[in-house]
Write a sequence for this structure.
C-alpha cells in the first residue's frame, strides 16, 4: 500500500488526561498510556513522553498544530498495523502447536508451551508463531513504537569477552574515542535538530571516561535539551551510577548476556565480570530508579533450547522496562570465531516466544538482528513481536570501527539515509511514534 506521510519525527505529543502519584496518563488520539512524571503538570497540558517517562512539556498551540498534522496519518498507520496483524492458521496441522498459539492470544504462555514453540522447525508453524506474536504485540501495544538514537562514543574496552569484536585483545581494531565536546554537541544536535527524544550513549568499558567526565557530559546535554539519556557503558560502581542519575541520566542498557552461570564464566573467562555481580548491578540500578533495558545473546555456544527458555524467563523475572535480545554473530578476531552463526528464523522465534511470555512488554529490535535481515532492514523482527529500534547516529568516521561483530547493518549509511530508511520502514508497517508507557 502506498502511504504518503508528511511527518518525520520520533514522538507525537500526548495530552495529559490524569495525574496521580508520580505518574500521568497520556492520551494519544484516544489511546491512553501511563508514564512516569517529574514535571509540574496540569490536566490538559501537552507533553512528549519517551520510554515511559515525560521528557518535555509543549506549548498548547504548538502541540495542537503538530497533532492536527498527525491525526490523519495516525489513523492511516493504525489501520495498516491492524491489517498486518492477522493470523492464518489454516495450513498448520499440528494440533498441539495450534492449541498453544490459539490460547496465547488470551493469556501469557507457560514454560512448557514456550519450549514446544522454540522446538518448531516446520516453516508454516514458524510463520504462524511469528504472526501470533505480532498479533499479541498489536493487541497490547497498538501501533506504538519508539526510536532511540545511539552514539557509540568509544570502542576502547578493558575487557576480553570472548564473543565481542572490541575486546581488549583484538589488536587489529583501530580504536577511537570521541571527545567530550564531540559527544555533547552530537547529542544536542540529535535532540534539537533531528528530534530524537532518547539517546543511548554506548562504549566499551573504558575508564578514560571517568565518572566526573560522564557526569559533566550528561549535565551539559540535559542543560540544552530534554532528551532521555540512556547509558550503555558496562559495569561501574553503584556510587558512580548514582552520580550519573543525579546529573540527569535516567536509563541504563546493560545485558546479562546469558542466565547460565557456566556459560557466563566461559565467555567472560579473561574478564573481571562475574555473573552474580552483573545481576546485582542490574537489580540495584533498577532500585535506584533507572529505566532498565536488558537481555541476552541468542545462539551462544552450548546454549540449548532449554537454556534459551531459562534466558527468557530470567529476563522476564528482572522485569525490565525494555528487553534487548539479539543474535550472537561470531567475529573473526575473537576466540568464538568458529562458532555456528544462528539464522534469522531461529532468532525471530526467540523474540516471538518472549512476546508470548510477556505480552505487554517492550522489545527492542537489535542491530544484530537487522544484520541478519539486511535486505529487509529489520522488518522481520518488528513483525515478530518487537516494537522499538535504534538509529545509529555515531559519526561515519567512527562507526565503522565500533565493530562488536562484522558487517553490521547500517554502518555504510549516512545518518540522513538511516533515518529515512527507518521512518519509511516503520510507516510501511503502520507504526507510529506514540510513547509506549510503563
Ligand atoms: N554479536 C552480537 N552481539 C554482540 N555483543 C557483543 N558482541 C556481540 C556479537 N559478536 C553485544 C553484547 C553487549 C552489547 C553491547 O553487544 O550483548 O551487551
Amino acid at each position: 500500500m502506498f502511504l504518503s506521510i508528511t511527518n518525520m519525527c520520533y514522538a507525537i505529543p500526548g495530552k495529559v488526561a490524569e495525574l496521580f502519584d508520580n505518574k500521568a496518563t497520556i492520551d494519544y488520539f484516544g489511546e491512553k498510556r501511563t508514564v512516569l512524571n517529574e514535571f509540574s503538570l496540569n490536566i490538559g497540558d501537552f507533553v512528549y513522553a519517551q520510554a515511559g517517562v515525560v521528557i518535555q512539556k509543549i506549548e498548547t498551540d504548538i502541540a495542537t498544530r503538530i497533532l492536527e498534522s498527525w491525526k490523519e496519518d495516525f489513523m492511516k498507520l493504525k489501520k495498516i498495523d491492524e491489517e498486518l496483524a492477522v493470523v492464518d492458521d489454516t495450513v498448520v496441522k499440528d494440533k498441539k502447536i495450534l492449541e498453544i498459539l490459539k490460547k496465547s492470544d488470551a493469556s501469557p504462555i507457560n514454560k512448557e508451551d514456550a519450549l514446544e514453540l522454540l522446538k518448531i522447525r516446520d516453516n508454516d508453524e514458524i510463520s504462524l508463531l511469528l504472526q501470533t506474536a505480532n498479533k499479541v504485540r498489536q493487541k497490547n501495544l497498538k501501533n506504538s513504537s519508539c526510536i532511540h538514537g545511539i552514539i557509540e562514543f568509544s570502542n576502547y574496552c578493558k575487557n576480553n569477552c570472548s564473543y565481542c569484536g572490541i575486546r581488549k585483545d583484538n589488536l587489529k581494531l583501530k580504536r577511537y574515542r570521541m571527545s567530550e565536546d564531540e559527544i555533547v554537541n552530537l547529542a544536542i544536535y540529535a535532540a534539537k535538530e533531528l528530534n530524537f527524544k532518547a539517546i543511548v550513549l554506548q562504549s566499551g568499558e573504558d575508564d578514560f571516561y571517568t565518572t566526573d567526565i560522564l557526569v559533566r557530559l550528561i549535565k551539559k546535554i540535559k542543560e540544552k535539551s530534554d532528551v532521555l539519556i540512556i547509558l550503555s557503558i558496562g559495569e561501574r560502581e553503584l556510587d558512580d551510577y548514582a552520580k550519573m542519575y543525579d546529573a540527569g541520566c535516567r536509563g541504563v542498557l546493560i545485558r546479562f548476556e546469558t542466565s547460565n552461570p557456566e556459560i557466563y564464566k566461559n565467555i567472560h573467562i579473561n574478564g573481571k565480570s562475574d555473573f552474580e555481580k552483573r545481576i546485582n548491578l542490574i537489580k540495584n540500578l533498577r532500585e535506584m530508579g533507572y529505566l532498565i533495558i536488558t537481555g541476552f545473546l541468542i545462539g551462544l555456544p552450548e546454549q540449548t533450547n532449554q537454556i534459551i527458555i531459562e534466558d527468557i524467563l530470567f529476563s522476564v523475572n528482572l522485569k525490565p522496562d525494555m528487553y534487548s535480545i539479539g543474535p550472537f554473530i561470531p567475529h573473526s578476531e575473537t576466540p568464538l570465531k568458529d562458532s555456528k552463526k544462528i539464522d534469522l528464523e531461529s532468532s525471530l522465534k526467540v523474540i516471538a516466544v518472549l512476546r508470548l511470555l510477556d505480552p505487554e512488554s517492550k522489545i527492542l529490535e537489535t542491530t544484530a538482528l537487522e544484520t541478519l535481515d539486511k535486505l529487509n532492514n529489520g522488518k522481520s523482527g518488528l513483525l515478530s513481536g518487537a516494537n522499538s529500534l535504534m538509529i545509529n547516529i555515531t559519526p561515519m568516521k567512527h562507526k565503522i570501527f565500533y565493530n562488536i561483530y562484522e558487517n553490521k547493518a547500517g554502518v555504510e549509511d549516512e545518518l540522513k539515509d538511516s533515518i529515512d530508511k527507518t521512518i519509511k520502514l516503520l510507516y510501511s508497517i503502520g507504526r507510529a511514534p506514540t510513547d509506549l508507557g510503563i
Q: What stands out?
A: The CA atoms of residues 397 and 431 lie 31 Å apart. The radius of gyration is 21 Å. Residues 1-8 have pLDDT under 50 and may be disordered.
